[in-house]
């Protein structure tokens, strides 16, 4: 007899829980019928659809802009490093040429520099 009462209590509590959960999970019939309706190609978009598309476009533009800005910064850094290396190599070559061709009669170019 006790197991019948226990079973009945469990069934009643499950039914009460299901009715509460059902109200939270499922939507109203009017909303459900409109949810799956397809909009015709010529019918105007709802404001929600327009807003969602605009948000997607803005996000895509922002990502594209960030990507190209990052690429440009990397390329500028690369070019700057290349120019610095080339300048260093040419300065060393000029220094070596001046040391090789110095005849000892005139003061070297280092002493002729005008200090500001």
UniProtKB/TrEMBL annotation:
Residues 36-56 are annotated as: Disordered. Pfam families: UCMA. It comes from the Eukaryota. Residues 45-56 have a biased composition (Basic and acidic residues). Keywords: Coiled coil, Extracellular matrix, Secreted, Signal, Sulfation. InterPro entries: UCMA. It is found in: Secreted, Extracellular space, Extracellular matrix. One of its GO terms (biological process) is embryonic skeletal system development. One of its GO terms (cellular component) is extracellular matrix. Residues 1-18 form the signal peptide. The keyword rRNA-binding does not apply. Residues 68-96 form a coiled coil. The keyword Cell inner membrane does not apply. PANTHER family: UNIQUE CARTILAGE MATRIX-ASSOCIATED PROTEIN. Belongs to the UCMA family. May be involved in the negative control of osteogenic differentiation of osteochondrogenic precursor cells in peripheral zones of fetal cartilage and at the cartilage-bone interface. This is Unique cartilage matrix-associated protein. It comes from Lynx canadensis (Canada lynx).
């Amino acid at each position: 007899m006790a197991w019948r009462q226990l079973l009945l209590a469990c069934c009643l509590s499950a039914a009460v829980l299901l009715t509460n959960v059902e109200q939270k999970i499922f939507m109203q019939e009017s909303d459900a019928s409109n949810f799956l309706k397809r909009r015709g190609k010529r019918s105007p978009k709802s404001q929600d659809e327009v807003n969602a598309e605009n948000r997607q476009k803005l996000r895509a533009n922002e990502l594209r802009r960030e990507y190209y800005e990052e690429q440009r910064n990397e390329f500028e850094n690369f070019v700057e490093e290349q120019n610095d290396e080339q300048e260093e190599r040419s300065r060393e070559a000029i220094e070596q040429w001046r040391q090789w061709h110095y005849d000892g009669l005139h003061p070297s170019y280092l002493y002729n520099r005008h200090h500001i």
